[in-house]
Amino acid sequence: MEASRAPVGYRDARGRRILPDPQGPRAGRVGREDPGGRADRLRKAGRPGALAVGRLQHARAEAGRSRRARRDRGQPRGPIVRGAVAQALRRVAIGPGDALAVGFDGTRIPDDLGVLAEQSGLGGVVLFARNCPSLEAVLSLTAAARGLGPDVLVMVDHEGGRVHRLPPPFTRFPPAASIGRSGGPRLAAAVAKAMARELRAGGFDSGLAPVLDCLLDPANTVIGDRAFGTTAAPVAACGVSFVEAMLSEGVAPVAKHFPGHGRTSIDSHLALPDVGAALDDLERVDLVPFRAVLDAGCPAVLIAHVRCRALDPELPASLSAEVIGGLLRRRLGFTGLVLSDDLEMAAVAGSWGIVDAARRFLGAGGDLALVCRSREAHREAVTAIGRDIDRGALDLGQAVRRRQAVRRLIDAVGARPDVSVIGCPEHRALAEEVARRSAAGG
Predict the structure, then answer these.
(1) How many CA atoms lie within 13 A of 228 on its CB side?
(2) Cα 163 to Cα 340: distance, rounded to the nearest angstrom
(3) Does one domain contain both 83 and 108?
(4) Active-site residue identified among 12, 105, 269, 418
(5) Gap between the Cα atoms of 152 and 171, Å rounded
(6) Burial of residue 106 (number of CB atoms within 10 Å: 0-12, 13-18, 19+)
(7) What is the pTM of this model?
(8) Given this model, what pLDDT does residue 53 score?
């Protein structure tokens, strides 16, 4: 039996109780199994974070018991009733894993990831070229990732140029610098719409773009041609067009790398960049594109592993309450989803460690911490975050609601396009036009 057609309230082939998927009109789909007594076993074992995990499992078990009681009383099991249960689940069922978006090796979801997502929640999955050798593999893997939870975001870095993780027939677009040189906002919108349609058809929710860094240091190769330009105005204009086009096609744009990664030649994959620019300079240049896309409705921002001494002389932006809670949340008024850059990057992992960096990011006001490869780090982060929840040092309620808001925003667009749009002649022609105009100097 296909999972999507399993009758709600029954058991699957492995004897698991089936809970409804808390997605309103899609509530007939299978959600997660009723875990039975797992919460009690965790508490008795004294496992760190067990209270947080236990509350998550208890909420799901209560939903299952409530549903069976309604069935026994002859009450309806239609969308309205299931929707009420879903809302209760959304209010209560938050686990430490809901604050994490993770990556892995291979072309299938690792067994331990599925178990951990069921026990502790999961915020997102990030795929890379190593996971995606073929279109068939992409479609299978994104479907499996979406099955890990109703609000799990399935993401991939898809900027064009050298940041292209997907196999043929996905259209390979030129980098942002080519778009900035050849057509500016008009071409940015056209490329973003084409990218979004292919991403959505492939089962993705976000391409983790656009890059809004202004390339202010010519030696900055980690950004380089990933930037739309070297000055604030054209980067902002292209960024706004890109964001609006992505949203119109049901893919979540993510503005990165806040508050700007364009002033340093240091690659944050390898070391922590230090930016000594004055606050006035940051306000006049680096922050301009971010302000513009936030005003245009961008729902998500990714924070850089860059230390801006004018903002926080000690911590990188990704771990700084001054940057996330102060600058982004309070001064810029951003209420959307905040993601970290990959916490396995040496800029933070080298000094703080992956797990402590995740805790610091969340404590500073972040919502979704990216751990893009290590299964061990994922497991350890779940335990550490669960411990913070248990002792009252961390509340993930707002973080989960922000992620759910992104899910509602992109789901409202409607059905995903057919896979035939991937690599279609129109998109290939657009990519060729951008490359041709860029080579000719615009």
Answers:
(1) 32
(2) 18
(3) no
(4) 269
(5) 25
(6) exposed
(7) 0.82
(8) 56
Structure tokens at 222: 């980690």
151 and 178 both lie in a single domain? yes
For residues 67 and 109, membership in a common domain is answered with no
162 plus 41 within the same structural domain: no
Q: How many residues does the chain have?
A: 442
Give residue 193's Cα distance to chain centre.
Answer: 19
341 is annotated as an active-site residue: yes
Q: Which of 185, 181, 210 is nearest to 195 (CA)?
A: 210
**Token couple for 209:** 């773009």
Q: Is 395 a catalytic residue?
A: no
List the end-to-end C-alpha distance of the chain, in Å, as a whole number: 54
Could you report the per-residue pLDDT of 192-230, keeping only the tens digit for each?
999 999 999 999 999 999 999 999 999 999 999 999 999
Q: Give φ, ψ of 116 to 5 degrees.
A: -65, -40
Q: What is the mean pLDDT of the chain?
A: 85
Q: Is residue 285 part of a domain?
A: yes
Q: Select which of 157, 341, 342, 367 is catalytic.
A: 341
- Structural contact between residues 83 and 369, judged by C-beta atoms closer than 8 angstroms: no
Are 152 and 85 in the same domain?
no
Q: End of a domain among 92, 115, 144?
A: 92
Domain limits for position 8: 3-92
Domains contained in the chain, number: 2
Q: Residues with Cβ < 8 Å from 65, sequence gap 6 or more? A: none
For residue 56, the model assigns a pLDDT of 59
